[in-house]
């Protein structure tokens, strides 16, 4: 099933763009990613996320948050922090994080 892009978010809101390079299926990654996806959904102010990965291992995840307080709550979450530490030690070759404030947003859906 193809996931549609997230749309309909009323600006302003914030994004955390996580771009990473890692092997296709490192041990334990899928379970941790599923756990984190469930956990971030409980953060008040979390609006959703989208992810894509190329066959070569480049991945991009964009997470949407209503405000900086929500984004900081996720950044400081203890389970998330432990996963980041484990990821640096075992999964990722490289990654970057970019935080942005969205002031305008629009989309298109043929369906």
TrEMBL record:
Residues 17-83 form the ABM domain. One of its GO terms (molecular function) is monooxygenase activity. It is an enzyme of class 1 (oxidoreductase). It comes from the Bacteria. Keywords: Monooxygenase, Oxidoreductase. The keyword Nuclease does not apply. Its EC number is 1.14.-.-. InterPro entries: ABM_dom, Dimeric_a/b-barrel, Jasmonate_Hydroxylase-like. This is Antibiotic biosynthesis monooxygenase family protein. It comes from Streptomyces omiyaensis.
